[in-house]
Amino acid sequence: MAHRQMTRLEAVAKMSLQVARRCVSSYGCVTSRKDFTQPQLIACLVLRAVSKNDYRGVCELLTLSPTLRRALGLEKVPHWTTLQKFMAKSHVPQIIDAMIGQVIAEVGWTDRPTPVAVDSTGLQNGLASLHYQTRRFGGVKTARKSVKVSVAVLCGVLLPAALVVDLGASPDMKQMPALMAQIEATSTPSWLLADAGYDAEWVHERCREQWNAESAIRAIPRTRDGTIKTRWRALMRELPAVYGLRWHAESFFSGMKRTTLATLSSRTERTLLTEAAMKVLAYAIRR
Fold first, then answer.
1. Which of 54, 80, 139, 142 has the fewest CB atoms below 10 angstroms from its CB?
2. Whole-prediction pTM value?
3. What CA–CA distances, in Å, run from 131 to 127, 135, 142, 143?
4. Tens of pLDDT, residues 78-98
């Protein structure tokens, strides 16, 4: 009898559970009822993102699919409120960061010198368009319901080397220090590629003098005569051919939104940020 080929969702569920088990303990406290492990719940949330479901929807999917339950090691299906409450826990974002690092390690890309492209995108809360929300509620309330996702993408494999999520719109440089700290911890960049939103001398200095890597960031003249006087930014008048790889970051966001949708369903600030980060993790695992 021929073996049945594993579906994409089964593969995502199996890998999510495997990665999560290496990043988080089975139970969060000694008084846990032990109905479900933390890795199982994380894997259910990844599956929710990839299948474009809400909490009820992914539970119904698990109820109807014995193969998915086996892939997750589930003897029974969690209630949808169990997943909702777990998503709101304060330590889940740290688990997501650890799992992203583990995904890179799984594919053997931690120590391989690779160009890294940095960019950001926005995810909005609800299905109503941003234009409608702005006209109906005004810019302030709209900004509170949007999440900015900043990612450093390993060019070629299109995996996230770093992730920072923040509420509302803000200058790209606000997230850059945290992004660069994560890049150092998870990968070995050979180039740092970014658009003009990340134009700053200190970024070049950290990249070239501390990482011993190259940098290519489109520079914006800030003097009256249009000259660039700082050491490294002055070299950015003509960008190298490798700068063309910066589109890999845009490709990552495009694939992530097609795979997990560009909207968020959470209501609280904490879960909005966690849901956005979960989309990045889910797309990385699906790749």
1. 139
2. 0.90
3. 11, 6, 9, 12
4. 999 999 999 999 999 999 999
